[in-house]
Specification:
single chain; alpha+beta; six-stranded antiparallel β-barrel; six-stranded antiparallel barrel
């Protein structure tokens, strides 16, 4: 069709008629006068649209699938790269693996004892002068830490908080000579007081001088009034030697602590005491004794010995 004045007028007229029909259709709703015409058009063009859809949709789906596949591939590639980087970082850093192991062990102990703890890291040690055994940890009153809170790690009792700053605190270690904690013997429940002796075993004074104690027996904290400075049930150590009873009012034992005070890194401050005394539940499982192998020696007589025995028997006859 050529672009003439008549063709332009016809185009404007057709557009006006189309808008009029659309308006009538919208206002008519379900009773629209053009509904019959629309249905007839649908009956005519519907099969054609369906056929075209059958042809076009697989192509569109294939394009979409290829695009999504590419996105998934890129995403997986990025994740694999991130995982590889993380594994390489962890694999090359023994210190991180060690800290994760310490943290996991401490969380297990706190869960068994129902202690609410605030994790911390040792960032400094006390001066050697005056035979003082202290460490500095990287949490303070901004983290909810208060004086006279129990400090532990995955092995057992570390010490107690003595001074608190905004973001750091000082911990008096259990092996300090000024450190004393009430203890309870596993099984027998015998009570006593453990005192630090520096790099030597803890000195424990049992209240019962006739208490039956042997090497290998274990102790936990007895706990303090209002759980400060010590919560109950924290593993303390294992009896390494017992002084002979000399008729005194108390009995002296020496206890090797579960905690190695020269290797402290990840610790936890008990900010919430357990609702009930865990008693011996937090102690690690006792090591099973290694059976002593029994060796039976069977002596097999040699051929020469057998011949000599036969000759001797013949001479006797």
């Amino acid at each position: 069709m050529r672009d003439t004045k008549e063709s332009r007028l016809l185009l404007v007229l057709l557009i006006a008629i189309a808008f009029a029909l659309i308006t009538v259709d919208i206002r008519g709703g379900r009773n629209s006068p053009v509904d019959g015409a629309r249905q007839a058009a649908a009956a005519v063009f519907g099969p054609i649209e369906k056929g075209m859809s059958t042809v076009v949709d697989p192509v569109g789906n294939a394009v979409s699938a290829i695009r999504d596949s590419g996105e998934r591939h890129n995403r997986l590639a990025r994740l694999e790269q991130q995982n590889a980087t993380l594994k390489a970082k962890l694999g090359s850093n023994d210190r991180n693996r060690s800290r994760l192991a310490q943290l996991d062990k401490m969380l297990k102990l706190s869960a068994e004892g129902q202690y609410g703890i605030k994790g911390a890291q040792v960032i400094g040690i006390g001066a050697a002068q005056g035979f003082s055994w202290t460490v500095t940890i990287d949490v303070g009153y901004n983290d909810g830490i208060k004086r006279d809170m129990t400090v532990l790690n995955g092995d057992g009792l570390v010490g107690r908080v003595t001074t608190v700053g905004p973001d750091a605190s000082t911990v008096l270690l259990a092996n300090d000579p000024d450190f004393t904690v009430g203890t309870r013997m596993e099984g027998s429940d015998e009570l006593g007081f453990a005192t630090g002796q520096g790099d030597r075993p803890l000195r424990v004074e049992l209240l019962n001088s006739q208490a039956e104690v042997k090497k290998g027996d274990r102790l936990v904290t007895f706990g303090s009034e209002a759980d400060k400075p010590f919560v109950p049930g924290v593993p303390v150590g294992t009896v390494s030697s017992v002084d002979p009873s000399n008729g005194g009012l108390t009995r002296i034992l020496y206890v090797t602590p579960f905690v190695s005070f020269t290797k402290l890194d990840i610790v936890g401050v008990v900010v919430e005491a357990p609702k009930k005394d865990p008693r011996d539940e937090v102690l690690p499982a006792k090591p099973q004794p290694t059976p002593t192998p029994t060796v039976t020696v069977t002596v097999t007589p040699s051929a020469d010995a057998s011949a000599n025995a036969s000759a001797t028997t013949g001479q006797q006859q």
